[in-house]
Amino acid sequence: MSSLKHITFVLVALLMAAILVYGAHRLQDLTAFLLLSVVMSAAYFDLTTRRIPNWLTYGAVSLALAWQAVVWAMAWSTAVSWQDSLLGGMLCGSMMFGLWKMKAIGGGDVKLALSLGLFMGLVPAVTGILMAHLAAAGFVIAWLVARGFAASGTLVMSNEWMSRLQLNQPLGASTRLPMAGFYAAGVCLVMWTY
């Protein structure tokens, strides 16, 4: 694993620990633990193998549905109603499916977003995913600028890098950004603020 992957994993793990200490009281602790376990595992696999395994993503969707069924059957008071959970899952899954059809993200990201929506509900999940994509966009811009500086010593980027910015040329799997780490950060930020 490269040093960037190590650093990213450690930073996300530290964010998770901070959320558990300071912010998890805002959502039910067990829900927070389940959600963070899923998203941290997905981030680890995405950063190390560039894939999120189906057993993890389908398992996360099943776990979220089962957890909502238990909460509903036991009539527990939680931050997320089952209606909000289903709406969150449908909207997050649909949005990410559209990005997958445009070859902007991988299939594991779609299923992970679906499970985030089911765990978190509509507004927190959409907020977390939006924050994740904004952070990823900022990272890509900073990376492209740094690559442009490194390649030529000026801000002018090479034709190769400019061609990768064109939307009509989908990036290959090897150039896709592992989004699960950004999803983990977005989830942690949302859990801390909601």
Would you mind describing this structure in some detail?
By secondary structure, the chain is mostly helical. It contains 8 helices and no strands. Helix 3 packs parallel to helix 5. The longest helix has 31 residues, at 122-152.
Task: Lay out the secondary structure.
Layout lengths: L2 H21 L5 H21 L4 H20 L8 H20 L5 H14 L1 H31 L6 H6 L15 H14 L1
Helix pairs in contact: 1-2, 1-8, 2-3, 2-5, 2-8, 3-5, 4-5, 4-6, 5-6, 6-8
**Nearest-angstrom radius of gyration?**
18 Å
How would the global form be characterised? globular
Identify the quaternary structure here.
Answer: single chain
Q: Secondary-structure element sequence?
A: HHHHHHHH
Beta strand count: 0
In percent, how much strand structure appears in the residues?
A: under 5%
Largest sheet: none
Report helical residue fraction. Answer: over 70%
> Could you list the spans in which at least 5 consecutive residues all have pLDDT below 50?
165-171
Mean pLDDT rating: 77
Structural class: mainly alpha
Please count the helical segments: 8
Straight-line distance between termini: 34 Å
